[in-house]
Specification:
Deoxyribose-phosphate aldolase; schiff base; cytoplasm; TIM Barrel; DeoC; 8-stranded parallel barrel
Length: 219
């Protein structure tokens, strides 16, 4: 397995400049990363710059808190896809999960999944595991599959901690093979990346993609 092809090369800092986005895209082309993951405001630019390349455009919705209304998230997703996004990483409604409002959570994911799939885009659901109990991680994983998500994802990278090997393994165990797992947040070297893959991660969201690939080639 070529690790570069499971990396979403990520830059989500609010202060990211156009120059930094252009550098991200250039690196993604050079290292043949699976995608770039950027905030919605940069989707159109990245889509244009990545035309005729292997690298897809991924963006984040309801980010980073997940507390937007369902209607806002659906609109955000459709708008991003129309501007060139191939994949949507949406933050689950964390407060609803904590409140046991599972029907509402599933309904939201289902509507966003439908909007994505009608437009040939994939949906990843960010659970923000560091704010959930193990039981809630399992429940959120199962809800996401039931609602039609293509991936479940560990973290935004903006909360109290990022990807955790045990959580990745729990997520993998909680869904069928139809749903993939993305680990993100705090994966800064090849050793940690490999631990996530071994635990069941199919995709990695990292800002240290270049360093991880270089490290993997030196082993």
């Amino acid at each position: 397995m070529e690790i570069n092809r499971i990396i979403d090369h990520t830059l989500l800092k609010p202060e990211s400049t156009e120059e930094q986005i252009e550098k991200l895209v250039q690196e993604a082309k050079e290292y043949d990363f699976y995608s770039v993951c950027v905030n919605p405001t940069w989707v159109e630019k990245c889509s244009e710059l990545l035309k005729n390349s292997n690298t897809k455009v991924c963006t984040v919705i309801g980010f980073p808190l997940g507390a937007n209304t369902k209607e806002t998230k659906v609109f955000e997703a459709i708008d991003a896809i129309e501007k060139g996004a191939d994949e949507i990483d949406m933050v689950i409604n964390i407060g609803y999960i904590k409140s046991g409002k599972f029907t509402e959570v599933e309904e939201e994911i289902r509507e966003i999944a439908k909007a994505c799939h009608e437009r040939d885009a994939l949906l990843k659901v960010i659970l923000e595991n560091c704010l959930l109990t193990k039981e809630e991680v399992e429940k959120a994983s199962k809800i996401s599959e039931s609602a039609g998500a293509d991936f479940i994802k560990t973290s935004t990278g903006f909360s109290t901690s990022g990807a955790d090997v045990d959580d990745v393994a729990l997520m993998r165990k909680s869904v069928s093979d139809k749903v993939k797992v993305k680990a993100s947040g705090g994966i800064r070297d090849y050793k940690k990346a490999k631990e996530m893959i071994d635990a069941g991660a199919d995709r990695l969201g990292v800002s240290a993609g270049v360093e991880i690939v270089k490290e993997s080639k030196n082993l």
